[in-house]
Design goal:
Strand order of the largest sheet: 1-2-3-4-5
Low-confidence stretches: 1-23
Number of domains: 2
Number of helices: 2
Helix content: 25-40%
Mean pLDDT: 80
Oligomer: single chain
């Protein structure tokens, strides 16, 4: 009986997770990043890392892929320490297929040197 209950709980969790995943990603169909090519992603990530690691606050880094028509900017807005981590409030703008998306995000540099969204995880 315990195995049956455990199996039911596992199945329910998988089904609910799949439903939530499908629901939570529907916003992507109207987002520029949904139309990014592999080269767009590479250019965006390179620009993001360059801006976060090298640019002063307020200095934008831009990328533009003439092949796909996609482009964007990454602008670190402010820098502060949070729980011993360097964090940067950053404005990201991306364009693709006539769509434009803009948002401000707190990105923090983890011990491994990778930038993570949302600040330090406790």
């Amino acid at each position: 009986m315990k195995k049956l209950i455990a199996l039911f709980c596992l199945a329910a969790t998988v089904l609910l997770s799949a439903s939530a995943y499908a629901f939570n990603t529907t916003f992507l169909r109207d987002a520029p990043l949904a139309y990014f090519t592999d080269r767009d992603w590479s250019m965006f990530k390179d620009t993001l890392n360059r801006a976060l690691n090298q640019n002063t606050d307020g200095a934008a880094a831009q990328w533009n892929n003439a092949s796909s028509g996609s482009s964007g900017e990454v602008t670190p807005l402010s820098t502060r320490e949070v729980n011993g981590m360097t964090c940067r409030e950053t404005r990201i703008v991306n364009r693709a297929q006539g769509l434009v998306a803009q948002g401000d995000y707190l990105l923090c540099k983890a011990a491994d040197g990778e930038w993570t969204i949302g600040g330090p995880q406790n």
